[in-house]
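Request: Show me your protein:
***
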Amino acid sequence: MEIYVIRHTTPDVAKGVCYGHSDIPVTHAFEEEVRSILSKIPQHIQIIYTSPLERCARLAAAIAAQSNVHIITDDRLKELNFGDWEMQRWDTIEQTALMRWMDNYEEECCPNGESYLQLVSRVKNFLEAIATSDHQTIAVVTHGGVIKSMKALIDKISLKDAMAYQSAYGEIIRFQV
């Protein structure tokens, strides 16, 4: 199975703001970014899975329109839930709690949010579910944290090593599973 994982386009949010689970729009550059993405997407995509958040769902709809394929929205593809930190500037978050999380992000939950291991668990559940699919070429429109989790699981590397991977907005990553 080929999985083409596409990170959403540029979100319309100020730099330095924590926005994981928050549903924020995309920038005015969306159409230009979409044209670039569509020129790189294989024509033989059979189905698209997407996070329900607008910055992913809108891109998935554009890909579906070009590819004439069905979209399945899946909450497991949402970005990390930063809980109380959502839409807060990173530099205004209580520093002791932030450092505790940064020192152990794999297991430490953001206040009223989740840990990266919980995100990885969601992603693992998603990957196990699509493994039973009859589709051989799948597109997944999602977020940076989900992509890192997929890299850890599919490439069989540590989450710490996967965290070093930085995907650009609109980047397409191909996995063969």
